Structure formats: C-alpha cells, structure tokens
Amino acid sequence: MSPDAPTTPRARARAAFRADLLAAARARIAAEGAAQLSLRALARDLGVASSAVYRYVESRDALLTLLIVEAYDEVADACERALAHAAARSATPGQTWLAVGRALRSWAVEHRHSYELIYGTPVPGYAAPRDTIAHATRVWAALATPLVDAHARGELGPSPADGRSDGLVAPLAIELARSLPGAGGPATAQAGSSEQVAALVVRSCTLFEALLGAVAAELFGHLTNVAADPARAFDITLASVAAGVGLRVELEG
C-alpha cells in the first residue's frame, strides 16, 4: 500500500468521492470547456446534493486549481520519467531534450483537455493561486535540464541570447535556474554572472515556447494537410529550435 493511501474508512470514502468529482469535472470540461464548469452541474452528474460537493471544494475556482495541479503533476511526472530513462542510458543532452519533448507531446495527445487547461486559453475570471507555481516549474525544470547539462559539459554552442539577456529575466527565474541540478551538481551555479545564467534561462524559454507551440499546432489541427508524419515533424521542430539555442540534436534516419 502506498504510504499516502488513506487508512480509515472515512478517509477512503473521501478519497473515492474526490476522485469521482475530479473525473466528473474532467468530463464536463471535455464536453463544454472549463469556462462552463459548475459545481451544481457536477453535483447532478454525481447524483448528490450540491452541499456535498461544497464540503470538498469551496468554489469552482478551487476545483479548477485541483485540476490544474493534477495536470501539471501528471505532465511533470512524464517528463521526469523521460529524464531518468535518458540518464540511465547515458543519453546526450540533445537526445535527452528530444526524449523529454516527446514525453510531453505523448501526454498532451492522450490528455488534450488537461493540456488545454494549463497551456491553452485562460479561463475567464480565474486566477491561479501562487501555490500552483511549484507544480508548473517542475515541467520547466525537466525541459531545462538537458540545456543545463550541455552547459556543464561545455557542449553548448553560441546563441542570440548571449550578451543580450542582462535585465531581461525576472529574479525568481534566475533563482530557480541556479537551483537546477546539472551534470555533477547545480551547473548554473558555476555559470558565472547573473547575465550568463539569464542567457540560459532565455534559451530554456525558447525551447519551452517552441515545444508548446509544436504541440498546440498538432492538437488543434494546424498541421492538417501539412505534415504527413506529425511525429517526425515534431522531432525536426525540436531539433531545429535546439540548434538555434546551441544544443545539438542528432536525429535518426
């Protein structure tokens, strides 16, 4: 049994209802969109009084936050597994970036509506609380790790970000970047000046933005009648953008 598993009948009942509530919410979002999510409608779906739902979540926004945290953690788990598998086979930083990007794409294809919830159009009237940040940055950390490793190994080529990033990156992003583990330790801590660390952050943001764009283009039909092989087109996109930030990706075939 998992150490986090509920151990009492009451706790197990609460966990089961919470799982049913989240499943019903995901189904509603898939059918109608997140903006239309209603706790009263979910209560009807579950066959309970609306007061029962409010005992678990205080508002629609609180429920959205649970779903957003769940989505961030799911995609982060997928990306971190890809990192671990790449490390186990001594993959190059470029191969690792491709593996992590593929993991995010696979998760998004399987969980399209969860992808839309965290990376799509914002829900009108909803503002994510600060406690979602840690969950969101897990994804960014996984995507940035191959770049940090390449820097630590001295394998990172030049980039337009060099010499142009001072004052561009928020202090919180600099702090997060310095905490990322690289090959043999916190690689960005040895990057030198804050400007050099900022240049790494700008490169990682370039990779992140291109990855999300590539996934969205496929999910939302923008590659229809354009890419005969979406998976291969995705790999080439990731390799191309990586080359632009000095990270070499060798594609097979």
From TrEMBL:
Keyword DNA-binding among record annotations: yes
Keyword match Zinc: no
Keywords: DNA-binding, Transcription, Transcription regulation
GO molecular function annotations of the record: DNA binding
Pfam families: TetR_C_33, TetR_N
Annotated DNA-binding residue span(s): 38-57
HTH tetR-type domain location: 15-75
Record-given protein name: TetR family transcriptional regulator
Organism, scientific name: Cellulomonas persica
